[in-house]
Amino acid sequence: MVRINKDLLAFVSRLYETESFNHFFLENYSPKQSLIKQGKKVFSVFIIKSGIAKCYLSEDNGKDFIQEFFSDGEIFGEIETINEHLSFCSIEAITDLQVFEIKGDKFHKLLRSNSKFNELILKAFANKVKYKAIRHGYNQSHTIEDKLLRLMNEFPELLQHISKQDIANYLGVTARSLNRTLSDMGKKFDLM
Amino acid sequence: MVRINKDLLAFVSRLYETESFNHFFLENYSPKQSLIKQGKKVFSVFIIKSGIAKCYLSEDNGKDFIQEFFSDGEIFGEIETINEHLSFCSIEAITDLQVFEIKGDKFHKLLRSNSKFNELILKAFANKVKYKAIRHGYNQSHTIEDKLLRLMNEFPELLQHISKQDIANYLGVTARSLNRTLSDMGKKFDLM
DNA sequence: TTACCGGAGGGACAAATGTCCTTTGTTATG
DNA sequence: CATAACAAAGGACATTTGTCCCTCCGGTAA
To answer: What is the pTM of this model?
Structure first.
């Protein structure tokens, strides 16, 4: 699925326009550029202004698993900043990307001093936990076809932007299996 | 895995002892009792004082998927309270359970008025997102045997407390597959 | 005691998915 | 232009996992 967070984006955009608060920087990234690397320190918190990025985890056996696709308003780097750990995943631009960035210490200050921001972050976290729970449950107990139908239903234009391999990595299957399922589904539709 | 949160438990225990703050209640539950039901309203936030509970999600196809086992200091009901949604999972006692409970509105107040508590909740969230991400990635890209070895490694006494079916539901496989893997592993060890 | 139930274990087969490898078409680059 | 690099597609086969059963056992209610 492609995660967004309109409330947070609106809030951060407003803050970015505010003369007196100048800790957000607007940066640009090109496709395939890396914003956060798994196992490395994280120095900033990021909020997407526009574009699509992938959030993925590289396993010890060499496979990549895509946690989510991120788009407008989605925040990342906040987890590592809050619990002061190294990054547990990688973030990479898929399309051209505009991103608001704020340094870790400024993020902490904002979190403590601005109750509206604090609330937005709490809600963002609550949503992250919830959708991760639902997605994991769904993934474990449904076939590739079910997962694919759901994905195409919720985000029909996905295949335009994203490679087959990324879709496979998002579903947690091989590209071969994804292809097989797609062609089986094609046959089904031909019969209708 | 069995999730715990010592810092949060220490904080809540101290607050519970405090005369001037009397919004935490200590409740007891017996095995198989339900604390939160999927799809229902959530009125309180819960923090475990002792015992083990399971957090699971019932899928549309009748299968249950266990998100986590919860123990000392783990919090739940906070997500639904913060984003004011119905519960997306169920919580059920496995062993005898002692639980601190606080009503939703009091939880909100505490979150706004007590910065230490606010920070503990933020960290709890950060950890939840992180371990969910890692677990989902691991689950998708490893065999049953790998998952089982990891589980027995991190929590060897688990099989004493928890039924085979629950283990299978936690790993996202059928009881039959779990059994097969267990007996295959037994054969392996016999050769060594 | 007897009958019954639910959990654990596992046989036989079916279905889903992965692995390995080949082909084709497109792009990009010297 | 030639050729390398790469994504997409799929054939053939192996492995993993699920489905559908049946049996065995220990508790327990009548």
So the answer is: 0.93
